[in-house]
């Protein structure tokens, strides 16, 4: 009896459709394709510079070698699996695959330049830099930007929608929904710039980072310069000082930033969830969807709940990578091999969360009446404005009231004060006529300061 393939991770099962674009880069196949890229480009570099008596390859041969990358597919995946079953070494299998291609092209005379003077980590570190860079720029960042773009739209749309703020969960000075969402846009765009400015470092200097084998083969060559030229030709930043491995600090920095982004979005998810529970946002029913197996009226905020869980999982993985990748015993140990293979897990859960958040933000609508009702039943929040105006009047010599804060505290703390109560109180205050007129015109909905205008700082 043949059992169906049992997928261990939900990223490769239930959620595969959402996260599959990452597999193009962060899967084992994606890693092997990048390894082939590095091996092929190193061969082309050496021959282009006529190293060891070689001549530049013909344009057709260069194209044929690079086609090993562009046409990389199931046949190559299967062949690498077959080779590794014998070599018990993943990078050696890649070397043999490239050598076979050289033989097919009649280029056996340069076969010994395949993997020339390289340790496996020379190939691996460049390959990881390539796949993480491309996964970040081509898959993760666009999804991240889509969330920010939707938040920006909602921020502008709701810029003038006054709402009661809640500090410590208690009624506080009003704001606008647009301004509150703009806070998240501003936070996330700062992190976006940091991630976009990330460096992707690479080394190419042999078994312990000393170019020893290189010099033994050709003592006159400027190997550091050759190494730098090759690494930068791949679009990476050259690291001249390493052990056998590239130190992975750039990975720790990048994963920390993405984990930071996760946590800010987690904060967004919990806030939106809370606004939904307060009735500030209505959820738009989705055709055919079921909220509860027993309560037909329900629309559960599952997009935001699922996002929270996936953000937590992503940050757990990425934080672990950030903490462990920066340490390697002496000149090399193999702890980074397994950990780096889990980069896709960290990215996958984050991407899944971004998809949930983006969808969730498109399935909510503001209930302006609910916002207005909360404001109208919390007139006591104007106590802040009143005591501040009294202080200004005292300072200006237009009032002799002592301790304005205590006066308002006695009136409002722990109490519900209505419009008529505030009018009566303000009318009896010893303050200037202009100040009194301003206070008498004030309402909770109108006490939002510059909240609407602050949204403009996003532009």
UniProtKB/TrEMBL annotation:
Gene Ontology MF terms: N6-(1,2-dicarboxyethyl)AMP AMP-lyase (fumarate-forming) activity
Residues in Adenylosuccinate lyase PurB C-terminal domain copies: 328-448
UniProt-listed Enzyme Commission number(s): 4.3.2.2
InterPro entries: Fumarase/histidase_N, Fumarate_lyase_CS, Fumarate_lyase_fam, Fumarate_lyase_N, L-Aspartase-like, PurB_bact, PurB_C
Keyword Repeat: no
Entries under Pfam families matching the protein: ASL_C, Lyase_1
Organism superkingdom: Bacteria
Chain ranges of the Fumarate lyase N-terminal domain: 13-307
CDD domains (alphabetical): PurB (cd01598)
Protein name per UniProt: Adenylosuccinate lyase
Taxon lineage: Bacteria, Bacillati, Actinomycetota, Actinomycetes, Micrococcales
